[in-house]
Amino acid sequence: MKEIFRHYKMKSENGLISLEACIVLPIFIMLVLFVYGIMIMFCGQHLMAHTLIQSAESLSLDPYSTERLGEINLTEASSLVNFLYSKIFTDEDKHFSSSEKWYGQTDDNMRTAVKDRFVGFLCGGSEDQADTMLDFFGVEDGLDGLDFTNTKIEGNELTVTIKYKQEFIFNFDGLASFDREQCFTVVLWDVKEQ
Amino acid sequence: MKNKRKKKQYRFINGAKGVISLFLCIVMTPILSVAGMLVEFSRYQGATSIAEELMDASILSVLGNYDEYIEKRFGLFAVSQDCDIEKTYENLYQNNSAILGNAIDQTSFSNAYGINSLLTDEKVLEQQILDFSESTVLTEVMLEDLQLQKLLDELTKLSNITDIFSKISKMKDLTSAVKDMVKSGEKLVETVEDISTSITNVKTKATELSGSIVELYKKLMNDTKFVATLPDSDSESENSDDTEELGSESVKYVIETYINSVRDIYQRAQDLYDEVIDIKNAVTVDIPSKISKFTTDVNKAKAALNEVKNTKKVTDDEKSKEEKVTNDSLSVLDTIISEIESVLNKSVEKLSTDTLNSLKNEADLLVETVKTNLGLDDVDQFLNIENYSWDNLSAATKDNIKKVLSQLDYDNWDSSDDALEDLKKNIIDVFLPDIFSTDTYSDIVYILSDAISLAEDRFINSVKDSISQILTNLVNSIKSMFELDVFYDADLCAYVTGGGNTGSPYEGFLTALQKVMDAKEKIENGGFFNVIGGIYDMLDATQKAWTTMWNILQDTIGQIGTFIEYIQNPKELYNMFLVSGYSVHNFPNRTNAGDSKWETDLSGYRVELVGSSLTGYSFNEIARPIISTTGAKQTGISGLLNSIKASASGSETHLTFMGAELEYIMAGTSSEIANQAIVFMQTYVLRLLLDIVAVFSDTNVAAMASATGPAAFVVYLLVLLGEPLIDTIFLVNGGEAPLIKSNCYLTPMGIPKMVSQLLSITVQNEALHDSIEDANLEGKLTDSIANYVNENDYEKFTNDGSINMDYDTHCLIILLAMTKKENVLKRISNLIYFESRYHYSQMNAEFNFDRNKAYTSIIATTDVKFNSFIEVFQFNDVSFMETKFSVTRGY
């Protein structure tokens, strides 16, 4: 019995390294993942901010092109040619341009236009890709999780606001989910100040 | 003991315990540090990127406050001058800065200001014009409108026209040679006429001399005192065969009593002598030299004629037409050279060396006879003596007087008229026996008169009618057109400061035209020398007009050559095309002036402007000042010249833009009236260039030219001057003209069509319409000339070209070919400034539009500080933590 115990005692330090690694490595890995998560969050925020600014800039120029090129004056040859040119040679994509007066219509139309433009500048207009990308950056519910309801036009200024929840890479059942709100204001070209 | 010591040495090393933790601490610490730094760096990059985007977007929003008038009117962009750039930018920047989160703090007030004023930076203006023109697909529209390829094809054809100009240059030389030849002929005729006149004078003076001698004779024979001094007649009868010399007593009595009569005789003798000397000089010197000069000039004219005939043909296609034109024009000159050569040959034949020697001998004899019989060696001395007393006279004079008086027969005095008349003849026979006994002078006069009559027959009878009818009617027609109020529209007048003009290059050209008109008056007066003098004057004026026209055309061809060279640099051509097209389609010109004008509340008036710019902005809405006068309108050439001169001297200023803005871009003077006049002339010269082929190939013009003989060139000149004038009148009144014409209006066939069209396009312009009707152009040209042309069927007149161009298109070509892009841009800048200034001053009298503040770019700078996410990386003294961003963005 004593031999057995002595043998056990001799063998008692075997696996200590493994044991230590089992305890320490997860901590280090979590540390690394934490840094990674931080980085993803920052990148996500940066991506959203960048997309927001570019979308807002693009939207700010819509009224000008709509007012000047969208309306055809049949008595003016140049206007007619411009119209034909815009219809024939330019492939209008709602994610990058619009010939509709979204800025003078209902808020829903405006928000739809804003959201379309956002998707356009986020990943070229593909909503599936947008979902994937947003999911990657921790945006809850992907594209559906983006809330543009606070977007508004005051005078000749368009304020695009997006609200969303961004989860940390380890959400811990909602404990690491953050509310985000970013907004950007631009002057709408060719819209009179009220 | 040894084990104890060993145990003590490794007391901190307990096998492999903690080695993993240790290892991970050692390895992961730097890894995590680097990862943290990378995270910060990524944040920094992202934050700076977003910060720049924020600034960029804020600037774009400021740029959104663009000047609405400049954008709507001109399609160009500049920041509105009522926008406070710095404040607007700062507000936008601050409102949006939340998007940066906590990553960046602004450490100083943002600074934003405008740069690159649209109206002072030509490069910016040009680029915006190019962008605008491209965005409106202006190029395609213009290419379609102009049918550029056809235009270039026609211009390439026109480049061959330099060959025609070479011929015109040689024809100019030929014209000059013909002019010299005619002048030499005229001089020869003048000299011969002088001889003829001198011969008549010699006869007259010889008659007067004999009459004076007979008068003295009568006085002496009635004077008893003189008779008493005569020697005894009985004693003389013994020696009746010899003429007894008069005694000194008698001569002394005559001198002291009848000195005036004696002096009168010597004065007449002196005159006779001088006249004979003139004839001698003319015969020996003048006639040979004039004939020599005449011969030389005729040969020069023939050489110049051959030079033109040997000129290279334009192209094979044009060969037959060119030959016909050349033959038509040269046949007329052939005629005049032949005529003059014929006169020369006859003159040389009649005034042969023998004839001239005979004349010279006769003149020598005459001189000798007069000298001998009247003793004129010291006649000067006699005539100059104041006290004609016997004692004052020299012995020689006394002998001469005695000799003259002794030749009278004092013994057989017969006081009857017949006897005295016989005596006169006898005296003439005594003094001038050989000269007056022959018909030499009479023959010469007859011969020269015959030559002159022949020339008169040729010139007057054959060409005067056609010249007077064709040229008179042509000149009247052109003059009537030049008197029309078409050079400018005084209702459209403007004032632009800082312009300037060095004078009109067309002044000499118009002066020459006026001389042609003056010469026409001379021809109408009739008579050989008036007709030939008038033709000479016309040829002279033609030569001057050719010279001026040649210079202008060479300039134009040179400029169009530059334009063709543009083709080798398509980008530059494209840019100039866009700038020119922008000017033509965005600025009103005189054809945009409507029919009505109305009084305003400010005791002025405004003229309606029709049309709109490429942006759709109605020209009639352009801000224009109310003007209280219509400007000093002057009609005709004088009005045109006065306006251009006044503009050049800076004395003419007209109130600002009423519509002829395109003309300002093209001419650039401070007077809008002068601008219109100058552009009228530019259009005229362009049409002159384009009409040359039509004028020289129209068979009716050639027929009219042939009919006028030596004045053929004048006909060509007049048609060449008139035809582009008609085209230009059409153009400035909203009509069109073909690029290359097939028929000329200035023929009996074309003028009814022209009048009909002119009346139709000016129906809204009552004053011009009436003046065209009053000018009666049709009546002036058709009736009398119709007989001289091949075809006068008005219905057969065709003048439809493959490319019909309006005033705008001509202006576009002139801008492309004759105007520098830099000047065009400067003038566009001026127009934008003036229009904007008036626009805003009408909206707000206190607002002062500043051309230096029409910014097209904004530069913004911001000092920021980067906040580190991990406190340990917060190094405030590290340079990248505090950064200055600078962003520039323009339209």
How are the secondary structure elements laid out?
The complex is a heterodimer of chains A (194) and B (891).
Chain A: H1 2-11, H2 16-69, H3 77-88, H4 107-123, H5 127-136, E1 152-154, E2 157-167, E3 177-187
Antiparallel strand pairs in A: 1-2, 2-3
Chain B: H1 2-9, H2 19-63, H3 68-74, H4 85-96, E1 104-106, E2 111-117, H5 122-135, H6 138-146, H7 148-159, H8 161-221, H9 224-229, H10 233-237, H11 248-257, H12 259-309, H13 319-350, H14 353-374, H15 379-384, H16 395-406, H17 417-431, H18 433-437, H19 440-482, H20 507-524, H21 528-566, H22 570-586, E3 593-599, E4 605-609, H23 636-649, H24 661-667, H25 672-697, H26 699-707, H27 712-732, E5 736-738, H28 751-761, H29 766-775, H30 777-785, E6 804-806, H31 807-818, H32 821-843, E7 855-866, E8 882-890
Antiparallel strand pairs in B: 1-7, 2-7, 3-4, 5-6, 7-8
Helix pairs in contact in B: 2-4, 5-22, 6-7, 7-21, 8-12, 8-13, 8-17, 8-19, 8-21, 12-13, 12-14, 13-19, 13-26, 19-20, 19-27, 19-30, 20-21, 21-25, 22-31, 22-32, 23-25, 24-25, 24-32, 25-27, 25-31, 26-27
The run of helices and strands of chain A is HHHHHEEE
Tell me, rounded to a whole number, the average pLDDT of chain B: 72
Which segments of chain B are poorly predicted (pLDDT under 50) over 5 or more consecutive residues?
A: 236-242, 493-505, 628-633, 652-656
The tally of strands of chain A reads: 3
State the major sheet of chain A.
3 strands, antiparallel
Tell me the helix content of chain A: 40-55%
Radius of gyration of chain B: 48 Å
Query: Biggest interface, and residues per chain?
Result: A-B, 43 and 49 residues
Separate helix tally of chain B: 32
Number of strands of chain B: 8
- Estimate percent helicity of chain B: 55-70%
Q: What form of chain A results from the Cα inertia axes?
A: elongated
